[in-house]
């Protein structure tokens, strides 16, 4: 997910995106703990997407 795509979304859409990413991160962590995770790089991508969404949410909150 790119930052440009996130900038066009409103805060409600960003909140739902964040909750979906957090659920994905939890599932990936559980798969890693059970040694079922094939691609460990997915965790890194999801973690960075979470950071992007939170950054955009902070920027939008600061503008108001």
Give an overview of the whole structure.
This protein is mostly helical and 64 residues long. The chain has one domain (3-59): Helix Hairpins. The protein has three helices and no strands. The chain has helices spanning 3-7, 11-33, 41-63. α2 (11-33) runs antiparallel to α3 (41-63). The model has no long low-confidence stretch (mean pLDDT 93).
Low-confidence stretches: none
- Tell me the number of strands: 0
How many helices? The count is 3
Radius of gyration: 13 Å
Largest sheet: none
Give the overall shape, derived from the CA principal axes. Answer: elongated
Q: Approximately how much helix is present in the residues?
A: over 70%
Mean pLDDT: 93
CATH domain class name: Mainly Alpha
How much strand content do the residues show? Answer: under 5%
How many domain regions? Answer: 1
* SSE-based structural type: mainly alpha
CATH topology annotation: Helix Hairpins
Distance between the termini: 24 Å
CATH architecture: Orthogonal Bundle
Would you list the SSEs in sequence order as H and E? Answer: HHH
